[in-house]
Amino acid sequence: MTNKQASGIQLVQGVLTLSTPAWPRLSQFIVNQNIELLNRIQQWLSMQSPTICWLLGEHSSGKTHLAQALLSQQTEIGKQGAFVSGKDAKKLRPELLQGLELLPFVCIDDVDTLLVQPTWLQAIERLAVLMRDRGGCLLLVQKSSVTPETLNGLVLVLQPLMEDALKREALINRAKQSDIVLSDAVVSWLLKQFSNDLGQLMHVLNYLDHASMTLKRPITVPFAKQVLLQ
């Protein structure tokens, strides 16, 4: 499955930087029971203290979506930021963090896949110290509830969407953001097939969009079945 590349995002050695707010917006984030968490993150960003904020949550709880939306928000107000994804940990080197302390906001997603390596732990510790000296904010996102003692900070736990109506809203919002045309029938079918995993649901949406553009066919239920269930 291939995701459509968004404009305004540059990939440099595993680091995504935004020149324009092309990622999810906070206005599209389904807050639900996470309103207090969102308020605390906004307070953290405005106060720039402590340097580190841990965003924890189970698989497909929306952690990455929220982190990217926060990065979009920061770029909208003129603050440059960077997004580092630890999903391809084997392909990344700790040296890519060098220089990121110059940015006011840095997010490392799936950081638990990196912290198991001593060289990465040392590099992130160094980044945190340098960002603290410059008044920056470092958002560390992971599934695990275990955080290193050397990286103390604000710890917040994101609650996943549980109700189908909220998942429907999240799917429709993401489709609108990407200018993807989905009928009610397609939305209902996708939720029936993939609603247990919101992250997979969003990945499937990107895949369908790519297939639709490649094959030059609209996204219908028969087309979705052909592409996804073959």
Give the tally of β-strands: 7
Radius of gyration: 18 Å
Strand count, sense and closure of the main sheet? 7 strands, mixed
* Sequence of strands across the biggest β-sheet: 1-2-4-5-6-3-7
CATH topology of the largest domain: Rossmann fold
Give the count of helical stretches.
Answer: 8
- Name the poorly predicted regions: 1-14, 18-22
| Secondary-structure-derived class | alpha/beta
Q: Provide the β-strand percentage band.
A: 5-15%
- State the order of secondary-structure elements, H for helix, E for strand: EEHEHEEHHEEHHHH
Annotated CATH architecture of the largest domain: 3-Layer(aba) Sandwich
Q: Write out the CATH superfamily name of the largest domain.
A: P-loop containing nucleotide triphosphate hydrolases
Number of domains: 2
Q: Name the average pLDDT.
A: 82
Principal-axis shape equals: elongated
- The first-level CATH class name of the largest domain: Alpha Beta
- Measured as a percent range, the helix fraction is 40-55%
Strand-helix topology:
Elements: E1 9-12, E2 15-18, H1 35-47, E3 52-56, H2 63-76, E4 81-85, E5 105-109, H3 112-115, H4 118-134, E6 137-142, E7 154-157, H5 164-177, H6 184-194, H7 198-215, H8 221-228
Parallel strand pairs: 3-6, 3-7, 4-5, 5-6
Antiparallel strand pairs: 1-2, 2-4
Helix pairs in contact: 5-7
